[in-house]
């Protein structure tokens, strides 16, 4: 294994050095769009929107924007994707092999995203680029001698009435791993196929001493619970007592910062945190350099990106896209500016608004951070609270009270006098009786719009603290426990009332 680790590390270093420099971002993206249009020009969508003629245009990007409208999920599904189970060549050649169910952070039901062969190849290609970027980090050879633990959703996929396989994207990925992945992939397909979250984690805890884990990938909340379960099962002081070569955590799905302190508590030695932007719609970006959590956009892997300014030029006060928003290309974006991400892909998504808001941290290479969801924008009474601003306030609140607050939920609700307040639910063991006033002051000091709202229509805030056990019980009761599940931080009023009723 030592020789294998050395060979793998050398191979990664050589591959990275031999790879030719990418085209400039604008050229790379134009090439991606042309390739997507060529492949889909004979589909129903391609014929309806004149892909053949768009490809003949002197300015393909401009022609594409003119001929194809922006779609949200409901529009794309109702008009196009819903037909793909019965007919071929709808938005992409042939029919998709799988449908990915989103983890349902927005909307009443999970989305169903088509997954094509080309899409699966693109995700593997981005994964390979991530691995090749590891030479930048100068990891020791022991990392490449070890195994990777991927905490996915269940790999036991459902079969729908039309015979298509369905599941969350991480489960689909795991179920399609080639057999040779068994050499390094843990917990293995057998354990990954266990549907019940607790049973799956218990099986991981039982097998843990037999593995040499060097890297872990998954959503921070569930990875943390899994690691704590392993430590509890084997009476450990830290996770490195059982996995001394653990050096990397590839985080994704939610912001990592509210979990950082708890991860540091269970590690004997520091681990490198890589952020990944892996959604049902694609493997969109990944950390490629040390000393940053910014992620490099996958510009040459089957995706074409557009960007709508997340301000009055592109969205309404409630975070909804304007009917005719400003749309920018990769060569027109600015560092520090937030944008709504629009995606076209080899899964047959066309000018599709994923619902994520990103900010550019650099342009060479183009690196981004996810700052929130368009629907996690709390602005019922003009408070203009983005997910990033709320995360920052929660981190400061936790630090002031010498504790950690991993998860929280908030909603604008009406009190007995029919006046709006913000109802917060914090998952923590914090005991302070002044949390509401402390949080209120933190938000006022960091956000002038919130301060103005508090002087007018927003009449107050209420804070309820629940334990981690209450939170996971709530997720279990609402069938959202484990794997890639994410809970919306900003809730509708009726959903918050349901949560308060369940937790008591």
Automatic annotation (TrEMBL):
Coiled coil: none annotated. InterPro entries: ANL_N_sf, GH3, GH3_C, GH3_M. Pfam families: GH3 (PF03321), GH3_C (PF23572), GH3_M (PF23571). Residues 299-373 form the GH3 middle domain. This is GH3 auxin-responsive promoter. Residues 390-494 form the GH3 C-terminal domain. One of its GO terms (molecular function) is acid-amino acid ligase activity. It comes from Algoriphagus ratkowskyi. One of its GO terms (cellular component) is cytoplasm.
